[in-house]
Amino acid sequence: MPAESSQTFCAEWKPESILERADWSRIFGRVAPVEIDYGCGEGAFLIAQAQKNPERNFLATERLVGRVEKVCRAAERLGLNHVRVLRMENAYTAQFLVPPESVATVYVSFPDPWPKRAHQARRLVQPEFIDSVREGMQRGGELRLKTDDLPYFQWMEKVMASAKGWQREEWVEDEGYPITNFETRFIAQGLPIHRSLYRKI
Ligand SMILES: C[S@@+](CC[C@H](N)C(=O)[O-])C[C@H]1O[C@@H](n2cnc3c(N)ncnc32)[C@H](O)[C@@H]1O
Please, which residues have CB within 8 angstroms of residue 124's CB and are 6 or more apart in sequence? Predict the structure, then answer.
């Protein structure tokens, strides 16, 4: 069981130093497989995944303070003391805060698509980000990418095709697989959801 009680627990992880890599066992108070949700938004997916998987540790990153606070409140209210939320830039977290070969699963769900050509350099899925994700991942770990935006999905596929050390696998979702806040909106609008799963080899 996670070490802290839901009474005293604070879900926000505020690193003492952003120049040192995370010590997961200290942050979560136990050793367990770590899953990261980059850009968690309002956290519906994260919270549901954490409820379904109490034996795993969950870190979410998010840059907007209001969203960080909302996700923290939900985790604290539900006593999910195996959840931590970090207000931090995604790529910085992957490159500088995640220890090597320490993460089991990474989710990148509906990242901002930045459709204008001039803005595409702002997309999260870039070769450098994918290399950082791979460095932080244990062998056999999973990267799950999801978007409603077909051009961004094609971009993701291109980045992954050039990235070394990944194997594409089929993404099988059981009925109870949680969906994200944005996914709920996109499904309601009848938009197709594009997804791909890559395993670190
Ligand atoms: C389109 S929303 C998707 C949110 C969530 N994954 C979902 O599917 O509902 C993208 C989220 O990523 C966050 N975000 C965008 N750029 C970021 C960055 N560089 N670092 C951290 N979070 C970022 C945004 O604030 C927003 O909450």
Answer: 38, 39, 90, 91, 108, 111, 112
- Work out the pLDDT band at 172, boundaries 50, 70, 90: confident
Substitution candidate for ligand 1 out of 36, 64, 85, 133 with most atoms within 8 A of CB = 64
Whole-angstrom distance, CA of residue 201 vs CA of residue 6: 37
Describe the strand order of the beta sheet including 137-147 as a list of residue ranges.
83-87, 57-62, 34-38, 103-109, 137-147, 194-200, 166-169
CATH of the domain at 169: 3.40.50.150
Give the structural domain span for 190. 24-200
The count of other CB atoms within 10 Å of the CB of residue 197 is: 17
Answer yes or no: 112 catalytic: yes
Q: Which atom of ligand 1 is nearest to the CA of 112?
A: 1
Look up residue 160 and give its amino acid.
M
Atom of ligand 1 nearest to the CA of 181: 9
pTM of the model: 0.96
Name the percent of the chain lying above pLDDT 70. 97
Structurally, how many domains does the chain consist of?
1
Is 3 part of a structural domain of the chain?
A: no
Q: Are 131 and 155 in contact (CB under 8 A)?
A: no
**1 occurs within a structural domain:** no
183 lines ligand 1 (CB under 6 A): yes
